[in-house]
Amino acid sequence: MYRSHSCGELRASHINTEVILSGWVQKSRDKGFMIWVDLRDRYGITQLIFDEERTPKDMMEKAKSLGREFVIQVTGTVIERESKNDKMPTGEIEVLVSKLEILNAAKLPPFTIEDQTDGGEDIRMKYRYLDIRRNPVKENLIFRHKVTMEVRKFLSNQGFIEVETPYLIKSTPEGARDFVVPSRMNKGQFYALPQSPQTFKQLLMVGGMDKYFQIVKCFRDEDLRADRQPEFTQIDCEMAFVEQEDILNVFEAMTRHLLKEIHGINIEKFPRMLYDDAMRLYGNDKPDIRFGMQFGELNEVTKHKDFPVFNNAELVVGIAVPGGNVYTRKEIDALIDWVKRPQIGALGMVYCRVNEDGTFKSSVDKFYDETDLSKWAEITGAKAGDLICVLSGETNKVRAQLSALRMELATRLGLRKSNEFAPLWVVDFPLLELDEETGHYHAMHHPFTSPKPGQLEMLDTNPGAVKANAYDLVLNGNEIGGGSIRIHDKKTQATMLRHLGFSDENAKAQFGFLMDAFEYGAPPHGGLAFGLDRLVAILGGQETIRDFIAFPKNNSGRDVMIDAPAFIDEEQLKELNIKLDIQE
Amino acid sequence: MYRSHSCGELRASHINTEVILSGWVQKSRDKGFMIWVDLRDRYGITQLIFDEERTPKDMMEKAKSLGREFVIQVTGTVIERESKNDKMPTGEIEVLVSKLEILNAAKLPPFTIEDQTDGGEDIRMKYRYLDIRRNPVKENLIFRHKVTMEVRKFLSNQGFIEVETPYLIKSTPEGARDFVVPSRMNKGQFYALPQSPQTFKQLLMVGGMDKYFQIVKCFRDEDLRADRQPEFTQIDCEMAFVEQEDILNVFEAMTRHLLKEIHGINIEKFPRMLYDDAMRLYGNDKPDIRFGMQFGELNEVTKHKDFPVFNNAELVVGIAVPGGNVYTRKEIDALIDWVKRPQIGALGMVYCRVNEDGTFKSSVDKFYDETDLSKWAEITGAKAGDLICVLSGETNKVRAQLSALRMELATRLGLRKSNEFAPLWVVDFPLLELDEETGHYHAMHHPFTSPKPGQLEMLDTNPGAVKANAYDLVLNGNEIGGGSIRIHDKKTQATMLRHLGFSDENAKAQFGFLMDAFEYGAPPHGGLAFGLDRLVAILGGQETIRDFIAFPKNNSGRDVMIDAPAFIDEEQLKELNIKLDIQE
């Protein structure tokens, strides 16, 4: 037996008990005649004590030899600690060691195993198994486990069945790029790894499973932006015989349950917002509503005042920065530089101070008088002491720019509190999205999303205006889930695919099995998928998903710990009926 | 709202309630003036009634038009049923329909959606979404969900943390063939899909996670024998600071919990058997101990009696078939033909009848007298009325042959009862296994398994005799789980890999990250993995894992429903820096 207790469990009530503990040496203090060792395991830290008077000489020598991260086993007696440490759950006691065994020595770790480490991202990823020993990472992984257990319990209690769908499926040209897997047994053919189990969950509805869920890995071979992973985890859900309202209610209840179980927070009813309103008021389809700073559109009150920039702009829009009037001219210039960075791309920024006495001072006083500016304040909701920031230009671009500024300022102002949770449903998404490069429309959600009743016909006349039965769940400015009511009849699905540019032949080759299935009695159905990595990060009050993934990949899609991907044998390639053909 | 109740929920207490139901038309009986429709969903079947007197004429017409598997929604009143059906939970009532809506018509399904279907395996797999509507398949999937929920709850309550390990990892030449995934971003390099998360779970132990589990897909590109799948699911577990005994106790408790929760069966203590004994007594490392028929080795009592077949045999071994003396000569001849089939490969079979009066009649009376044969009976445990079947030859071969015969006879005799559960630990597996083709030893479990204490040295002198800290959990003659105590120091791991034929260079390239990790304070650790597909099938009283997988692949690794794998675009291949190179 390696241990009778964990390192987090001994209390004053255990005094005089003989115990066996195993763990890692967190650190030791050697006073010559006395040695204290902090012994660590997943459950906590217990102080061990060796002293000249009570410890045999050879054991003192052995204790002196212990380095950081050595793995040891000790037998000893729990005794009262002289100087108690009320910051540690085990702080009332220590263990006087009578037997010490070194189970495994350890080289000096390449970074310190402490909550605040001296290791950079790269070295921590290379030695991720050491990084996981650190409390923040360990606690994140335990937190992730707790969230998934709660999700499973909740959904299972609601009658959802977790069904495993296959990982070796078929490549589809729609959406992101697939990872593919050459089939040895089917020469020249490839499986694809699922971008999501979308079609399978729909087939489970056709199969009468009624309520399905799965916590499942999904794969996308995309050029990795920061904080994207080639493999990621979804809480994937689908229900039959439901309308949008039914789905929203179930998953609102699930999210409410998580917030309650994990943070003790009760949120009665999640607000809902139309996609169009989200774009108008926040420039963004996933607004962070923990704070205000809503957009005020200023076209009406800025036009025809001889300021050509605003006169020529499709949209003039501003926000009020609470207390922003304290910014110096230099600080405001820095802000202007910030919005002009290529990542944001604004051409400039107009600002207007709202002084404490209610007067205004703007960067465009030449064109606008107090009356004009008071209207700006009214529309943006600016109060005395605030700063109004105004951007202008093409609607989509300027909204994205002002949204980025709003988030940046809120972060600087401490308005994005990590212990505050503001969920929001965004509903009535457009069905299609115009790809500006190709001029083609593609499905905003995916090709299986149903248009709003009666809008199918508009696909021919005004495709961009067709709204979908599609919804996102937003939490603190992050999309944590999204879904839709699906098309469940072959004809509509065929029409839809035609509008997305599929030839009938391609539609049949790619999705024939699904459309065939629709002919054998498909129920109305819909669903939703949560991005688990992000959900867990946001619930954990953080934003970096990598910190909640045990073994993440870097921005080049590499696992630097195991050094993957890697070259494989010629023999292996031959068996798979492929050869390398490196493109320059 | 599509429904107020499910189709399995209405009882006499609901009489006079107005309800809304949705589901599939299971069948309808049309008596002209009256139409009954069985409406089905996941939860059950409810009888709907339409009749001339109470149903408007156009609705009668619509009801007449309903075909099997149409999806409909009805509003109606729950009424008492005239002829009650106590075989159905809803058999006391029916619903008099006041509103009927056809949500989706259905083509006639290619096989009947009944518990006993007329569809063969191939057609059912092509239309798996229809197959899933059938109770046996649906119930299997729900059963699988229940088992996994119980496993997760049990392990979570025991302090295990479910950690997701990556799917895009690195190919290793050891073990079965990997499925690989070309990396677009790392030209010419490949990921591999995990055959198991083995090294990652060990790294989690090095990382101090202490108790890990994961229900996870694994992948093996093997030539598919019957009832093997290229992707399969494991309950993967690992613990730190444990000895074999600790692991056996935890997972015995888990299995006991499952048997109790699922079948209400209490099994106090699982028996344990040495690998060597299992091979000697059952010819098999996964003996079915629901019944006896243990092997009796007869070399001592058959040699030197002028029967050259036995005299020259490495092993002469028999089993007593309970009540087998009733077999006619023809039946016994058929049995001899059975063991001589190429799949079994015996050269012949000697038999000996034990008559009711205690006398013997054997096929080798020329060589053996009553005294000799009475010893055979004693050693095999044969009683009056039994039949002793004896095979002889090379030890390994003859054991496998007699084991196959034992299982076949037990099946014919009805001794393998599907509602009886006989778990068994098989322990002390050999560390290495001789590959007879190459003459090389390879790891019987995997290269990370630790040899029994003090036996490492024997690797040089008598490698085949080295026993491992490895164990299997057997249930009803099936291996449902297996694991080992792992090597946790670099030196032993390096020695082990050398003995498995890895050059130091290869060992470093493949497993360097693991051996490096062992130098930074690796705790003693070990674990176990259950094959979930098989566990669920066996717990469900069945043996075919395919029946417990939602979307299985066929023996060529194809998903015939979605028609995968498939050819992919030239463009896609180019992006992945590969081209086809089909070997003839």
Automatic annotation (TrEMBL), chains A, B:
Every Aminoacyl-transfer RNA synthetases class-II family profile domain range: 144-552
Region (Aspartate): 198-201
Catalytic EC class: ligase
Short name of any one Pfam family annotated for the protein: tRNA-synt_2
Gene Ontology cellular component terms for the protein in this record: cytoplasm
Xref: CDD domains: AspRS_core, EcAspRS_like_N
Main location: cytoplasm
Subcellular location: Cytoplasm
Binding, ATP: 220-222, 229, 479, 531-534
UniProt record similarity statement: Belongs to the class-II aminoacyl-tRNA synthetase family. Type 1 subfamily.
PANTHER family: ASPARTATE--TRNA LIGASE, MITOCHONDRIAL (PTHR22594:SF5), ASPARTYL/LYSYL-TRNA SYNTHETASE (PTHR22594)
Assembly mode: Homodimer.
Record's protein name: Aspartate--tRNA ligase
Source species: Polaribacter gangjinensis
Source species taxonomy: Bacteria, Pseudomonadati, Bacteroidota, Flavobacteriia, Flavobacteriales
Gene designation per UniProt: aspS
